[in-house]
Every structure is written in structure tokens, then in C-alpha cells.
Amino acid sequence: MNKNTDCNVKFPSDNIYVTKCPLIYALDIIGQKWKLPIMWYLFENDFTRYNELKRKVKGITNMMLTKSLKELEQHNLIVRTQYETIPPKVEYALTERGKALLPALNELSIWGEEQIKLDKSKPNS
Questions:
Q1: 16-36 burial string, b = 16+ CB within 10 Å, else e?
Q2: Given pLDDT bands bounded at 50, 70 and 90, which one contains residue 10?
Q3: What's the CA gap between 21 and 17, in Å, rounded?
Q4: Whole-number Å distance between alpha carbons of 19 and 17
Q5: Other Cβ atoms within 10 Å of 114 Cβ, number
Q6: How many CB atoms sit inside 10 A of residue 98's CB?
Q7: In terms of C-beta distances under 8 Å and separation of at least 24 residues, what long-range contacts does 30-37 make, across chains too?
Q8: Hey, what's the torsion of the CAs at 50, 54, 56, 57, to 10 degrees?
Q9: 67-84 in b/e burial notation, b at 16+ Cβ within 10 A?
């Protein structure tokens, strides 16, 4: 970690998972396999229907999509809008809180690109 970074977090025990570390808390919210792809797609497409998300997030099951959407909604990162039509219509979109996370995710993406390049340049052992 950069020595100039001030996390303002004191770790009273050896186990970081026992403390209330903001980074660990944030990763618990968004760190699951499907949540980031869902959020990226919603960022690019504003209001999106369930079946469109299902098609765009390759490999996700209905159960995992429903679970991920509910958890993101519980943390106020997305909003679910249900229209009383026949057939029923439901759309999802990022909230302002969800959009506020995107600059940090973009920085993490840039860091990840750098790591990929560094790892590709390593000689095979």
C-alpha cells in the first residue's frame, strides 16, 4: 500500500475481517462475480429490463441475477421500477449512489490493465 495513503483505520486485531474496514465492507457489497458486470451494463444503458440483463451478462442464471439485483437494490446501488402493465414490466437502473462508485471502479480497471501487461511481460518459469 502507498505510504502516503491514509486509510484512517486502526486494526485492533490480527484479523482484518473482524475489524470494520471500509474497503472490506465495500468489497463485500460489490465483490461478487456478477455484480460488477451488472453495474457496468446498467451504467452503459440506463434503464434496462430483466431479460436484457440476462442476455447481456453471459453465463448468469436466473437465480443469481435475481439474487444479485436484490442485493444491489438493498444497498441502494440500483433502483427497480415496476410498471403495472400486462405483461408486467420491470426496469433496473443505477442510483446516484451506484454511479458514484464508477470512478473508483474505472481506476481499478486501469490498475488491472497495468497488471495484465506486467504479468504478460514476465518470462515463463
A1: eeeeeeeeeeeeeebeeebbb
A2: low
A3: 8
A4: 6
A5: 10
A6: 20
A7: 30/77, 30/101, 32/68, 32/71, 34/60, 34/64, 34/65, 34/68, 35/68, 35/71, 35/72, 36/105
A8: 120
A9: ebbebbeebebbbeeeee
pTM, rounded to two decimals: 0.76
Amino acid of residue 25: Y
Residue 68, all three cell numbers = 444479485
pLDDT in tens, 36-93: 999 989 998 889 999 999 999 999 999 999 999 999 999 999 999 999 999 889 999 9
